[in-house]
Predict the 3D structure of the following.
Amino acid sequence: MSTANRGVNIGPPRFKIAVHSIVWLAQSGSILSSAMIANQVNSHATFMRRVMQALAAAGIVESKGGREGGYILRKTANEITLGDIYAAVNTCTAEPEGDGNCGETGHKLDVELEKILFEAEQKTIDYLRQYTINDVMERVDFFVV
């Protein structure tokens, strides 16, 4: 089976949606509602609000309430990295608990695997921090803000 037709599914499912959302916000340069963003990225508005809440908590976007409310970038496209977005929308970035000295082999294995996966995730985030939203927009020939 060819991998050319399959999408890359690395990272949390919200990651791609979050990146697309940030790109659309950067393109617009204005406040967009979660419904408008969801429509642009082919997602549901409720799911979009959850993603945007995570991005707001990380200081990437700002939420504006009211009838004309929505979301706006708090930073420029050149200041936001893919690593920032990944870390914001991934709910599993807490360092694993446990010292690996468990008596039960299965539990000890789980703890060690969590530690390895945590380390791999941290390296992924560090790598993704090399790329800004501006870089991504340039790669796909978007008008760069």
